[in-house]
Amino acid sequence: MCDDPVCNDCKQWATYYYDRDVLTRNYSVFVYNDVIQDIVTKWKYRGDYVLGNIFKQYIYQTYKQHKSSLPDQIITVPIPLSGQRLLERGFNQAKMLANFLPLKQEELLHRLHGEKQSKKTRKERLSSKNPFYLLKKVNKPVLLVDDIYTTGTTLRHAASLLKQNGCPDVYALTLVRG
Amino acid sequence: MASETTNQLANQFAGKLLLRSEIPLSEDVFQHCVSSGNFTAVSSISKNLLYCQCNRCGNREPGLFAKIPCQICHREHHYCRKCIEMGRVMECEPLYYWNGDQPAWATPADPCSWDGELTDKQQLAADRITQAIVSQEKELLIWAVCGAGKTEMLFPGITKALQSGKRVCLATPRADVVRELLPRFRQVFAGVSIQGLYGGSDEKEKVAQLILSTTHQLLRFRQAFDVLIIDEIDAFPYHKDPSLSFAANRSRKQISTMIYLTATPRKEQRRRMLQKQLNHMFVPTRFHGYPLPVPSLKMCRTLKKDLARPAPPKLLTEWLKQRVNPERQLLLFVPTIELAEKLEMVLARKFIQLGWLPSKQAITFVHASDPDREEKVQQFRRKETFMLLTTTILERGVTFPSVDVVVLDAGHDVFDEAALVQIAGRAGRSPDDPTGEVLFIHDGKTDAMVEAVSSVKAMNKRGGFR
Fold this sequence. Notes:
Largest interface: A-B, 13 and 15 residues
Largest sheet of chain B: 7 strands, parallel
Number of helices of chain B: 13
Order of helices and strands of chain A: HEHHEHHEHEEHE
Radius of gyration of chain B: 24 Å
Structural class of chain B: alpha/beta
Number of strands of chain A: 6
Distance between the termini of chain A: 12 Å
Radius of gyration of chain A: 15 Å
Helix content of chain A: 25-40%
Number of helices of chain A: 7
Distance between the termini of chain B: 68 Å
Oligomer: heterodimer
Shape of chain B: globular
Strand content of chain B: 15-25%
Shape of chain A: globular
Strand order of the largest sheet of chain A: 1-6-5-2
Largest sheet of chain A: 4 strands, parallel
Strand order of the largest sheet of chain B: 11-12-10-13-14-9-15
Helix content of chain B: 25-40%
Structural class of chain A: alpha/beta
């Protein structure tokens, strides 16, 4: 889906990080469309947990397709929800997706509660404070897993935190590219 | 807690059945209500050896339950998928109902300011409804032909109910009907607290004695109503979805009156009426005293070919040239959204060429998930467009003063008998133009078509027309 050449979004981020984007690559399974939007809404916001299972084969296939370009030893880190959001939702959709991958998974991040990302404008997202802190240092490469890539802010908040703390390389796998 | 606030809470929550997330109270106040016994918790999903049951929507189908590894209670348990659009019901979260003092609703002496006149037939039905409400009859079905003026027939009964401090709900299948009725009821029952409930309405937290709602919203009520009026009892989704009758029955008080309204009762209801299990009253005439337009069936052998191209069947253009009253707007029903989308431009081109339409803005198309549906319907009503292409979404509950009606491919499965009778009932609704032509274009008669025609004729006959 998101093969070379580098998309404008990544180019902008590269400039932002003085040519050293903290996120090496993002792989997305789907490009946003009405059908995906409906399914994701029902799954994530209405909380229809089992609906997430329909993404299993797609996530797995995308991973397999790009497996050769991912470093060995890579572990998955699902983007967490804040404690409060988890109590509202009952499950973490990113963790559900990460469970579909045949890789070791570690929950290294904790997230502070804030306004929903989906309720913010692009500008607000880009200027938002990093909501994550690290529970544990890691020296292996990391594949962040999340459901939707919109501006890439959330993933880069997580990635920069990991990189500052000894993680050599951060990739991302997301279900939908907004 | 002061008694004043308890009264407010009673007004707000009496008769409701809610999830904690639907109760807008601080945790302190809420816990106080629970410990004082004002809120009672009931399990939201009950289980036995054979099945799970969702206690909000009554769902028992195993395929409509799923398991979630719940991060709230750290167990894996069931949740209901059937009513999830109204907020998720999970095993670990109970439903709450108000068990405290019951609210005392107002008893306005003169709540109704409607100054219209009922026809004799309407008056008979209105009296029958009032009688059912006063004597707390369990069930009454009003079978009134399309255009009989059902809403007005309800006014006297609702007035009586409000005068004696009863709580009333009028439930109808579609949100647009609720939105249409609201301003009208607010005008007629000006001093009464009225709430409109539908998905996305902004009045969810209001407190009201008279509630207009979509049938789905009844899922949030329990023993709330003294009078529950179910409009369009035969319509989708009520007759197809057992959740809705489950919710309707739960939302009425133990001693209460349920009134069903329909123009096209289904077999089940007819059987119950015949066997005297269901009290009913038949209103055989339209309020302006003219008969229902009888549909004419037109066979078109090339229909499938025409629609595949797509092109308007020759028969349609021929008929357009020789309509009885060419001033009337045209309401055209098609079986599917895809077909309507394809036809819109083709018809526009053809009819402009024939000089029958001034421009392509004069034709418009609506369907269920069209965001501009309301606006387009209003435009057609204001005669800003001449021709409206629609799916069955407009088969009922809408009134256009002067239209001819065509059903393209009337043999399609979506047009069952009730739908066809309702569609025919869109014509001739105004006293200024009380007739209209109704055309069913088909490529082979179906039972539905034949039954629809004979049902219209039978109703006219009962209305004293020959």
